[in-house]
Amino acid sequence: MSDSFFTPVSGMDLPRFAGVPTFMRLPHLTLDDPRSSDVDVGIIGIPWDSGTTNRPGPRHGPRQLRDMSTMIRAQNGATNVRPFEALNCADLGDVGPNPADIQDSMDRITAFYADVKAKNITPLTAGGDHLSSLPVLRALAADSPVGMIHFDSHTDLFHSYFGGTMYTHGTPFRRAVEEGLLDPKRVVQIGIRGTAYDTEDLDFAESVGIRIIRIEELFERGIASVMAEARDIVGDQNTYLSYDIDFVDPTFAPGTGTPEVGGPNSFQALQVVRELAGVNIIGADLVEVSPPFDTSGGTAFLGVSIMFEMLCILAGNRQR
Amino acid sequence: MSDSFFTPVSGMDLPRFAGVPTFMRLPHLTLDDPRSSDVDVGIIGIPWDSGTTNRPGPRHGPRQLRDMSTMIRAQNGATNVRPFEALNCADLGDVGPNPADIQDSMDRITAFYADVKAKNITPLTAGGDHLSSLPVLRALAADSPVGMIHFDSHTDLFHSYFGGTMYTHGTPFRRAVEEGLLDPKRVVQIGIRGTAYDTEDLDFAESVGIRIIRIEELFERGIASVMAEARDIVGDQNTYLSYDIDFVDPTFAPGTGTPEVGGPNSFQALQVVRELAGVNIIGADLVEVSPPFDTSGGTAFLGVSIMFEMLCILAGNRQR
Amino acid sequence: MSDSFFTPVSGMDLPRFAGVPTFMRLPHLTLDDPRSSDVDVGIIGIPWDSGTTNRPGPRHGPRQLRDMSTMIRAQNGATNVRPFEALNCADLGDVGPNPADIQDSMDRITAFYADVKAKNITPLTAGGDHLSSLPVLRALAADSPVGMIHFDSHTDLFHSYFGGTMYTHGTPFRRAVEEGLLDPKRVVQIGIRGTAYDTEDLDFAESVGIRIIRIEELFERGIASVMAEARDIVGDQNTYLSYDIDFVDPTFAPGTGTPEVGGPNSFQALQVVRELAGVNIIGADLVEVSPPFDTSGGTAFLGVSIMFEMLCILAGNRQR
Amino acid sequence: MSDSFFTPVSGMDLPRFAGVPTFMRLPHLTLDDPRSSDVDVGIIGIPWDSGTTNRPGPRHGPRQLRDMSTMIRAQNGATNVRPFEALNCADLGDVGPNPADIQDSMDRITAFYADVKAKNITPLTAGGDHLSSLPVLRALAADSPVGMIHFDSHTDLFHSYFGGTMYTHGTPFRRAVEEGLLDPKRVVQIGIRGTAYDTEDLDFAESVGIRIIRIEELFERGIASVMAEARDIVGDQNTYLSYDIDFVDPTFAPGTGTPEVGGPNSFQALQVVRELAGVNIIGADLVEVSPPFDTSGGTAFLGVSIMFEMLCILAGNRQR
Amino acid sequence: MSDSFFTPVSGMDLPRFAGVPTFMRLPHLTLDDPRSSDVDVGIIGIPWDSGTTNRPGPRHGPRQLRDMSTMIRAQNGATNVRPFEALNCADLGDVGPNPADIQDSMDRITAFYADVKAKNITPLTAGGDHLSSLPVLRALAADSPVGMIHFDSHTDLFHSYFGGTMYTHGTPFRRAVEEGLLDPKRVVQIGIRGTAYDTEDLDFAESVGIRIIRIEELFERGIASVMAEARDIVGDQNTYLSYDIDFVDPTFAPGTGTPEVGGPNSFQALQVVRELAGVNIIGADLVEVSPPFDTSGGTAFLGVSIMFEMLCILAGNRQR
Amino acid sequence: MSDSFFTPVSGMDLPRFAGVPTFMRLPHLTLDDPRSSDVDVGIIGIPWDSGTTNRPGPRHGPRQLRDMSTMIRAQNGATNVRPFEALNCADLGDVGPNPADIQDSMDRITAFYADVKAKNITPLTAGGDHLSSLPVLRALAADSPVGMIHFDSHTDLFHSYFGGTMYTHGTPFRRAVEEGLLDPKRVVQIGIRGTAYDTEDLDFAESVGIRIIRIEELFERGIASVMAEARDIVGDQNTYLSYDIDFVDPTFAPGTGTPEVGGPNSFQALQVVRELAGVNIIGADLVEVSPPFDTSGGTAFLGVSIMFEMLCILAGNRQR
C-alpha cells in the first residue's frame, strides 16, 4: 500500500480542470527533496526537440501531457489495477535541456537519470523527441545492456543524417546498440510503416539481430500473437519500453512531427501495453508528442492514457 | 404517408448550406402551434450544461447539431428507410434552461416534455449534458418505470459529487432508479471504459440488476451479439434510448467534455442503433456534444447522423 | 528585497516552455504551508464559471493563464519595476469550486479569501467568471466597503436574470453594493459598450452614484485623462481592482464568453493598469478568460501580461 | 412603435446560445406569409460565392452570421437607438442560389429583391460574395440609378477576369455603372488599399467620376471628415450602402477571401456606419464573410455588429 | 531505371520542410519544356471547385497536397516499390481553371490532358472537385470508352441538380456514360454510403450495368474479396482510377465538402489501392480534398499517401 | 525595365490559389542557373529554427510565406511602385540547413550568401529564426561593417543563454558587433518592449552606442519622427534591414515564438518600411514567422506584405 502523501488529488475533491497540473495530479518533488527517497516510480518530462529532423514541437510535450493528465483517475477500468495504491508515484519535474546545444542537453539528461537510478526510482518519461531515449539509456543501461520493446512507425536505427550528423531522433537506437546500451537480440520494434529513404536501417537491424514487426504483420497476426512473441524476445531480463506516439495512426495522434498514415487505433494503442504484464521493465518513455500540431489536445490525452497503462504494468511488476 | 407540410427542404431546391438551420431542415413549430397536434416525432434541443463536472459546452450542442443536420438527406442509404415519409417530424425548438439554476432548469424541462407526451409526440432530444435525461424521464416515465438502452463510456450511476451534490451529469440514472423512473432490470449500459474513481457506481449497478457491457466485451463479442442481448434485456415494453456521444472514440467525437480513449469508430456508432429495430422506444436522446471542443463540427455531424438512425428506428416502429 | 525562496525560475536556467506551470514560475504553496506567512502577494485561481449566462469556459482560465504565464520574465520593460524582488509572491493554488452548486462555491471562495486576508496577503486572482468577484469582496470588504476600479465592456450591475436569478456574472456588483461591500460613490466602470437589453443597470448606477465611462468617452478623452479621474474617484482609501478581459477588443482577446466589438487594443489594455500607480489596491482580479474560445492562447497571454502589470503596481505600493 | 410580433426573443427569456438562430432572433417569414406586408426591414441571406476569384466560402456567410447574431441585444449602447421598436424587422430567409450557374443565380436574386421592393421592404443583405450586390441593384435601381457608399479594400470596378469573364466579385460595380444602376457621380469608395494588378479600375473610376478614398487618406483626415464628404457626395437621394468585410483589417476580420492588411480596426468599422445618420439608404449589404477562414466566428460577430449599426441608421431614417 | 533528372530531392540533402513544394519534390516542368517528352507519369493539379454543390474548397487542394507531399520518401515500405526509379515522374503544374466559368474550365482541362496524352504521359491528377474527372476523361477516352474503378461515398451518377443543371460534382459519371467515355459494364463503385435524396442514381447504375458495392458489403466481405471482383470487372483493358477522398471516413479525412460518416480507416484507404497491382490504369485522380475544412493538413497528407500508392501501382505496370 | 522572364504569373492568367507556390509567383532559379546572373533581387528562404530558445517553428516560415505570397499582386497601391518592372526578381530557393547542427547550418548559410553577393544580387530573406541574420551578415559585411535598421520587440543583444551558449536567436547582433559586422553607432532598434530578464542587453547597447527606441517612444513621437531619426542614424552608407515579425503586436502576428503584447498594428507595420525610401539597403530579412502557431496564415500574409514593401524600397533605390 502506498504512502498517502503520494495519493493524487481526486476529481471529487477538486474538479479535474482545477489546480496546478502535475502529472496525474501527483505531488511534485525535486530529486533533492528528502521524500524523493520514498518514490517508486518517478514521472519525468524531457521538454526537448533538438533532435527533430522534420516538424518540431516535442519540447512542448511534457507541458501538455501534464495538462491532459489531470483527466486520469485512480483505477484502470479494464484491468482494475490501482497504480497509485500499489506504488509511490511522483512528478519529478522536467530535466532542463539546453535548446541550442545537443551534447550539453544529452549530458544533462544522463546526469538526471543517473540520480534517478541511484535512488532506485523507475523512470516513466514524457518526451521530448526520440533522441531523448539515448541519454536515458546511457544512465539506465550504464552497467549492462538491456532489451527493448519499441512501438513506432520508424526504426530510428539510421546511421546519420544531413551528411554525417550522428545525433538526431532518427538515430538513437543505432547509437545505443553501438554503445552497448541495447542488446540487439533482445530488441523488438513494432508498427514500422510508411515510405522510406532506403533500407539502411533495416539492413543494420538484420545484421545485429533486431526483430522488426511491420504494421501489416501486426494487423494480420493480431496483437495477442505479436505481443507474445515480443515478450519472448525480451525474456525476463531488464527491458526498456519506448513508445513513439507516431506508432498510432495520425488521425488518432495528429500531434507529432513525422506521422505515417495507416497505423493502429486508440484501443489498439492501449492494448499493446496491456499485453506487457510481467515484463521486467526498468524504465519507459512516451515520446514525440508535439502539441503545436494538435491544438485539441487529443494526442496528449491519448499519450497520458498510454502512460497510465504503462504505470499499471509497473504497478503489477513492482509492488511495495 | 406523412403530411407534405412536414417534408424537409430538399438540397436540390435549396443548397444544404443555405436557409435557417432547423433540425434536418424540418418545419419549426412551437407546442402552441395548432399543427403540433399532427406531429409524430418532435426533435427538441436542451441547450444546457449546468450538470457538467468537467469541461463545459453542451449548452451549445443543439445549435451546432441543427447546423450540421442540414447535411442529412431524405433516405437511409443502408436501410432504405425514409423517415420523413413514414412520420410527421418537426423541430419543436429548444427548452429554455436557466443556466444559473439547476432545479429551475430541471422543472422547465420536465414541464416541456410533459406537454410533448400529452400530445402523443415521441421526443428525440439533442442535449445538453447527460443530466438532461433525468428531467426528461420524469415526464416520460411519470406513470411507470421504463427500460433503457444506454450507450456511454460512463455509467452516470454515481451517488453524488463534490461532497454531496446530487444532481450532476454523473448521477442522472442513479436518481432515475431511486425515483422509480427506470426499471433497473431492464437497463443495459454499453461501452463503459476509461479510468475510474472507484467502483461505487458498478456496485450500485450490480445491487439493482443493471447490466453493464464494457467496451472490451463489446469488441470481443461483436455488435450483433451484444445488441441481441440488449434487445432481450429491454424486451417489448417501453424503453428509453440514451446515447452519450462519448460512447464513441474521442478521435471520432472530440467535441465532448469527458472523453475516454479506446472507443467505437463511426461505423460502429451507427451500427449499434441500426440493431434496435423493433425495440419499443418511447423517447431518445443524443447528449454531451460540446462544440467548443470541436471547431470542425465533425462531432456534431456524427451526432446528427446517429440521430437520423434513431429517427429511422422510430419510423420503422411507429408509422402513421 | 524579497526572500530568494520566492524568486521565479529563470528562463536562462530552465527554458520557459519547461517545468510544472505555476503562475509566473513562482513557488506553489498552500495556505497551510508555514512559508505562506511570508507571502506578500498570493496569486490564486478561481476555476469556476457557474455564473455564466452566455458562452462558458472560464473554469479553464486559471490553467491556461498559468501555462502562458511562464512567458513572463522578471522586469517590467516599460516601468523597470522588478516585482518579485520588491515582494514575496507565490502561487497559492486554486480555490476548489463546486461546479454544480453556486452557493456552495461562493462560500468556499469567501472562506479561502478570508484566510488569505487573515494572513495579510494581497490576493491577485485569476478567474473564473465575473461572479467570482462577489465572494472575494465578501472576504476582503467584510469590515468596511471598498472602492473599485472596474474595466469591462459590461456593468455587471443587473438586478437578476432569467426571471429572478440573483447570482450570475451579470449581477455581482449590484449584490456587492446591496451588501455594503462596495461604496458606490467610489466605484468607476470604464470601457462599457455593446448592445444592451435595456438601461436598468445604468439607472441603478446613476441612482447610487457609480461613475460609468463608456468606450467612446475613453477614446475621445484619452487614457491619461480618464485614469486621472478614476484615481480621483477612488481616492486613497481601500480599492479593489477588477478587470474583465472583455474590456479589451475581442480580436485581441477572443477567449471570452460575452465579447463586444470596438474595444481597446493590447497596448491600451496595459496602459490603463500602468496609470494606477499609487492607488491603494487591496486586491485585484482578471476574469472571464475562456480558453475554449481561444485555442491559440493569445487571450491568456494578454491576460497574464495584464496581471504582471497589476503585480508591478502592487510592488510599487507595498514594498517589504 | 413596432408590432410586438416582430420583437426579437430576449436573452433574459431564452439564453442567447439557445433557439433556432434567425437573424437577430427575429421572426422568420417567407415573402408569401401574409405578415410580410407589415415588414419594414427584411434581413435576407444570399448564400452564394460563385463570383469569387480567390478563396471561396461566402456561401456559408448567412448561416454563421445568423448564428452569431443571437449575441445582439435590443439597444445600441452608443446611440441609444432601439431599432426593433422603431421598425418591424424580420428574417426573410435566404435567396436560394444555383451554385453551379451564375446567370441563373443572378436572376433568382433579382426576382427575390423585386418582390421585396414591391412590398416596400428595405432589404438588409447578408452575403455572399460581392457579385451579390449586382443582382440586388438590378431590382432596387430598376427605375433610376442610385448613389452608393461603398466600404471595401477593393474597388470591384474591373472590366473582366480570366480572359473576358464579365461577372465576378471584382466587377459588380463596373457592370452596375454600365447598366445604369449606379450614378457614378454619387458613388464613393472608402478604404481602398493593397497591392494591385494595374490601374484599369482606377482609370475607369476617374473617367466616370467615382470618388475613391484610399485608406491612407481615411487615416490621415479622420473618419468624421471623410464621412462628411461621403454624405455630401450621395446627397439626399436614394443611396445604396455596400460594406465588404474586407474593408476591415484582416486581423479583425480574417474570415474573408481576399484580405488586404493595414485596414481599420473594429471600433472604426462601426464608426463609419454611425456617421451615416440621415443618409437616404434604400438598401444595404454586408458581404464577403467567409466562415471557413474564421473558425472562431469573430468575423461573423463583427459582421452582425456592423449590420446592427446599419439597422439603427435605417431606424433613424424610417420610423413607422 | 529512371533518368536522374527526375529524382526527387532527398530529405537527407534538404530537410523535408524546406524548398519550393512541388509534388513529391519532383522537378516542375511545363508541357512545352523539352524534357517533358521524357516523362512517364505527370502529376497535375486541377485547382477547381466550381462543380461543388455543397461546401467549397477543393480549388485549394493541389496547393496543400503539394505541401504535404514533401513528407513522402522514395520507397514504399509495404511493397518495396521505388516508383521514382522505375519511372520518370514530374510535376507538370496546375491546369489554370476559370473559377467563374464552368464550360471554359472544362475546355481548358480537356485541352491540357489531350496534350498530356499526346506525349504518352500517364496523368496522376490532384483535384479539384469530382467534376474534374469528366474533362479529363474527355481527353483520355476520346478514342474509346474505358473502364473505371471508383472509390467514393457517392455515385456521382445523378442526372442534374437545382432544377436542371447538368454539370456539377454529382453528375460527372452520368455524363461520361452518356458521352461514351465510360463503358458502364466495366465500372465499379466502392464505398457508397450515407443518406440519399432518392434512388435515381442507383436506378441509372442498374439500368446501364454499373456495379455498386456499398460500404456494408465492403466491410462484410473484406477488401481482398471486393477488390478481386473489381479487378474482374475492369479486366485487362484500359481503366481509369478515380478516388474521392470522401471514400475515407471523415474523421480520417475531414477536409472534404460532402462527408459521410462510417467509412474506411486510413490503413484500408491504402489497402484498396495496393490491391490494384496489374490493372491497366491509364490515368488516375484523387479528388475533393478541401483544405479550408482541414487546417491540420491531415487530409492532404492521407491524400498524397494514397497518390504515392497509385504511383507505385503505375510503376509496377509501366516500367521504362 | 525588367526582363519579361522575371515577370510574376498574373492572377488574371492563373488564379492566385493555383500553381506551384514560389515567392510572389516569381521564377524559381538556383544559383547555378545561368539566368541567375541577371537577377537583381533574390528572395531566399532560410527554413531554420535551431537558435530558438522558446517556442519553435520558423523552420516552416519560408514554406508558408511562399504559399501566402501568391496573394501579392504587381503594384504597390500606396506608393505606385511596380517592383517587378523595376528589377529582375527571382525566388532563389531555400538554403538547406542542418537542423541538428548549428555551426554547420551557419556555415552553409554564409556560403550561400557569399555566392549571392558575388553575383551582385541583393538578398531579401524569409527566415528562419533571428539567428539567421548572423551568418547572412558574415557574408554581406565580410569586407566592412554595415549599419542596421532593426524592427523587433527584443534587442537580440544578449551575451549568452543557458549557462554560456553563444549562438541563439537572442544573441545574433551581440556577435555581429563583436565580429565587426555591424557598426554599432549606425544601428537603431525600434519597437523594443515586454518583460525582461535583466538589462544586460541594454547596458551593452549603451556601451557601444546602439540606439534603442522603445515602443512607448515610437507611439508617443509617431512613426514619421522616429523613422527620420532612424534614417539619420544609418546615413547613406551600406545598411542592413532586419525585421522580426514579433515587432508587430501578436494579435496581428500570432505566428511567432516569443510574442510581446502591446505592439504596432498592421498598418504601422507597413508604414515603418515605407519610411525607408532612399536608405542604402544592401540586404533585408523578415524573420521569426512560425506557422505552427498561426494556422490561419494571417501572420505569413502580413509577413509577405511587409516583404513586398521592402522590395518596393529596393526597387526605388536600385533600378536597372
From TrEMBL, chains A, B, C, D, E, F:
**Record has Nucleotide-binding as a keyword:** no
- The source organism is Shimia litoralis
Q: Which PROSITE patterns match?
A: ARGINASE_1, ARGINASE_2
Q: Which gene encodes it?
A: speB
Q: Which NCBIfam families match?
A: agmatinase (TIGR01230)
> How is the cofactor bound, in the record's words?
Binds 2 manganese ions per subunit.
Q: Name one Pfam family in it.
A: Arginase
Query: Which named protein is this?
Result: Agmatinase
Which ranges does the record mark as transmembrane? none
Recall the GO molecular function terms of this protein's record: agmatinase activity; metal ion binding
- Carries keyword Protein transport? no
Q: What InterPro entries has UniProt attached to this entry?
A: Agmatinase-rel, Ureohydrolase, Ureohydrolase_dom_sf, Ureohydrolase_Mn_BS
Quote the CDD domains the UniProt record gives: Agmatinase_PAH
Task: Give the EC number.
Answer: 3.5.3.11
Which family does the record claim for this protein? Answer: Belongs to the arginase family. Agmatinase subfamily.
Give cofactor(s), names only: Mn(2+)
Show the Gene3D superfamilies listed in the entry.
Ureohydrolase domain (3.40.800.10)
